[in-house]
Specification:
Elements: H1 2-33, E1 51-63, E2 66-79, E3 83-89, E4 95-101, E5 104-105, E6 108-110, E7 115-124, E8 129-138, E9 147-152, E10 155-160, E11 183-191, E12 195-198, E13 201-208, E14 211-218, E15 229-232, E16 235-241, E17 248-254, H2 261-267, H3 269-280, E18 291-295, E19 301-302, E20 308-310, H4 315-323, E21 332-333, H5 340-358, H6 360-374, H7 392-395, H8 398-416, H9 418-430, E22 438-439, H10 441-452, H11 457-465, E23 470-478, E24 483-492, E25 502-510, E26 514-522, E27 527-532, E28 539-542, E29 554-557, E30 569-571, E31 578-582, E32 589-595, E33 601-605, E34 609-611, E35 618-626, E36 629-637
Parallel strand pairs: 1-11, 17-18, 18-20, 21-22, 23-29
Antiparallel strand pairs: 1-2, 2-8, 3-7, 4-5, 4-8, 6-7, 9-10, 10-15, 11-14, 12-15, 13-14, 16-17, 19-20, 23-24, 24-27, 25-26, 25-28, 30-31, 31-34, 32-33, 32-35, 35-36
Helix pairs in contact: 1-6, 3-4, 4-5, 5-6, 5-8, 6-8, 8-9, 9-10
Length: 638
């Protein structure tokens, strides 16, 4: 009866987590992909690769009640090669009125490729810097819904969400994943009754007539897609996080009608999650400024640096967007093919919150939910192809970029062990070549291998770059006193992988509720393992903690009545040099005699391992005299 109740309890947890996780993850994905599933033409704009943005001053005038923006963007950049023109990404819907270099008006062209091409007064030499001022206005493009006006409780609100390709829809920028802006100042001018939110620290508010200009400064490198603004009648709810001297404010911009005691209780989870992530990894990367949330209308959330835009304040959503401040914002995926370095990590860190706050049963249910989603289709890789990296729907695939990416990290943790796994991630975050810059999958792999001390190429080939998942068949058998033999077979769901090499957790059970957990390094199909077990095995379970991506697995107990003859194995067979005899642990060898085909004894030994180099090729018979009797085997000598 207790077992029945336990199974019902675990099923209830799993089903509940599956429903909650799927709904919550779908909301996150909706916001981060902005529901745009069409093919996008822009992946890397080669016309913006010849300069490096070092600073931008962004001045925006908006009114939440009006779908329009008036902007002045002043960009400091350094030429990477000699250049006579400089190109910015900017949608045609916005009209540029002037471009200046100092007091000099420059000629420019807005072309059909959503580019602003500016002609410089003279060739700018590589290594030199200039400051360009662009003035523009208009109604931003609506295709990617990067700039939105709406209402909440009858009050106008404006907010932006530019990932992956939408920054150009509302300001002239360089939005490719090859350059971060070293620092930014953002000035938001809006009707004075509204509160403005953006990246970095709020420096000042200046009221002029009926308008108010709010100044934010962000002094960390930031990609264009993470720059964001939001304006409405926010109420501000302040918290504190971190540990002195690295404590910092959490500033929450919440709709007044939403800032209830219940929401404040939800927001109270933020400092606790912050503490967990700081303990597991490192101090919050932007602790010199702030963290916080700004409520907006998209389902789910978006991890704008230092201020995540949120539709609700569930713990899972708070954890996911906060995790991005390390994985996605401090270190940003270097291409959209590497999006799992953002989304897989954020999803797995949310799972770590479940593990640390709710316990192992909830963590197992969470992993099982992800595995079920991943294996709902037989194909799909974590790493994207060039073509897939232009498809927003594929970039933000909840099944592959989020859940499979997360479970790959869980399997790396299983393979490496907690100490090495978390140390490798700390090293990755601390790498000065990656910190506040970009990373690709191979750079993460290098950090993992440096700590692990062995190659992870096979693992990454199978689980990251190729497709599908394995189905395991596990058979356990009592193998003499104190031993069991486990055989692991495998089939693959997709032809791209011939065999998934992986550590395989197996749980053996015995009478009276005894359990014994082992992890076996499965490197070939139908591989056999003989292990010591302190009891007679009565049952077997595959992957009890749900640590491996797999589906339709079976685990059975075979041939419970052990026959001693079957417990003696001789290998390799055929043999060329060394012969090995394997016996149950309670049996000892007295002597080994080898006879040829006419019954002549040609070799004698008393060890379990010995050379047969002196034998000619042919068939031989082995007589093994043991403490439990004499047994006979046949071998072939090559």
């Amino acid at each position: 009866m207790k077992k029945t109740y336990l199974l019902l309890f675990l099923f209830s947890i799993t089903f509940s987590f599956a429903q909650t996780n799927e709904k919550e993850l779908n909301e996150i994905v909706e916001a981060e992909m902005k529901s745009a599933s069409n093919l996008m033409e822009l992946a890397v704009n080669p016309n913006t690769l010849n300069y490096d943005v070092t600073y931008q001053k962004l001045e925006f005038t908006v009114n939440p009640a009006v779908y329009n923006i008036v902007g002045k963007v002043t960009t400091t950049y350094t030429a990477l090669s000699d250049m006579s023109t400089v190109t910015f990404d900017l949608t045609n819907e916005l009209v540029v009125s002037s471009v200046k270099l100092g007091t000099t008006n420059l000629t420019f062209l807005q072309n059909a490729n959503d580019e602003l091409v500016i002609t410089l007064p003279s060739t700018q030499l590589a290594g030199t810097s200039r400051i360009i001022e662009i003035n523009y206005s208009g109604a931003p493009a609506t295709g990617e819904q990067a700039f939105t006006t709406s209402t909440h409780n009858g009050i106008p609100v404006i907010y932006t969400l530019s990932e992956p390709f939408g920054a150009r829809d509302w300001w002239p920028c360089k939005q490719d994943l090859n350059d971060k802006i070293n620092s930014i100042d953002i000035y938001i001018t809006a009707p004075s009754q509204y509160v403005s939110a953006s990246n970095g620290l709020e420096i000042s508010q200046v009221v002029s007539g009926s308008n108010k200009t709010t100044h934010f400064h962000h002094n960390y490198p930031i990609p264009a897609y993470l720059v964001a603004i939001a304006v409405t009648n926010y109420s501000i709810f302040n918290q504190t996080a971190g540990t002195a001297p690295n404590d910092f404010p959490i500033v929450n911009y919440i709709y007044p009608e939403t800032l209830t005691p219940a929401v404040q209780t939800q927001l109270a989870q933020t400092p606790l999650i912050m503490n967990l992530f700081e303990n597991l990894f490192e101090v919050y990367p932007f602790h010199n400024e702030k963290y916080g949330h700004a409520q907006f209308g998209w389902g789910g959330g978006m991890e704008h640096t230092t201020v995540s835009f949120m539709q609700n304040f569930s713990r899972g959503l708070i954890a996911h967007e906060l995790a991005h401040q390390w994985f996605g914002n401090k270190i940003t995926c270097g291409t959209w093919k590497d999006i799992w370095l953002n989304e897989g990590f954020a999803t797995y860190l949310s799972s770590l919150v479940i593990e640390n706050f709710d316990g192992n049963a909830a963590f197992i249910a969470n992993k099982n939910s992800m595995i079920s989603n991943i294996t709902s289709q037989i194909n799909g890789a974590v790493y994207l192809t060039d073509t897939e990296a232009t498809n927003v729907g594929r970039i933000f695939s909840s099944r592959l970029s989020y859940n499979k990416g997360a479970m790959v990290l869980n399997m790396l943790r299983l393979k490496m062990g907690d100490v090495m796994f978390f140390q490798a991630l700390k090293n990755y975050l601390a790498d000065t070549n990656l910190a506040f810059k970009y990373a690709v999958t191979s750079e993460l792999k290098s950090h993992l291998e440096a700590v692990y001390g062995s190659s992870l190429t096979e693992f990454f080939d199978d689980w990251v770059y190729k497709q599908g998942y394995p189905t395991y068949t596990v058979t356990a058998q009592n193998w003499g006193a104190g031993q069991a033999k486990i055989t692991i077979g495998q089939t693959q769901s997709h032809f791209s992988v011939s065999f998934f090499e992986m550590l395989v957790p197996v749980r053996l059970t015995g009478a009276g509720g005894l359990t014994f957990d082992t992890v076996l390094n499965n490197t070939s199909n139908n591989q056999e393992f003989i292990i010591s077990v302190p009891f007679a095995v009565t049952g077997v379970e595959f992957d009890p903690e749900k640590d491996i991506i797999s589906k339709n697995n079976t685990a059975t107990l075979a041939n419970e009545n052990f026959e001693l003859e079957n417990g003696i194995a001789i290998y390799p067979n055929p043999v060329q040099n060394e012969l090995h005899i394997q016996l149950p642990s309670n049996i000892t060898i007295n002597s080994v005699s080898i006879f040829n085909g006419i019954g002549q004894k040609v070799l004698e030994n008393s060890n379990s391992d010995f050379s047969v180099n002196t034998l000619s090729s042919g068939v031989y018979y082995v007589e093994i005299e043991t403490s439990e009797g004499t047994f006979h085997k046949k071998i072939i000598k090559n």
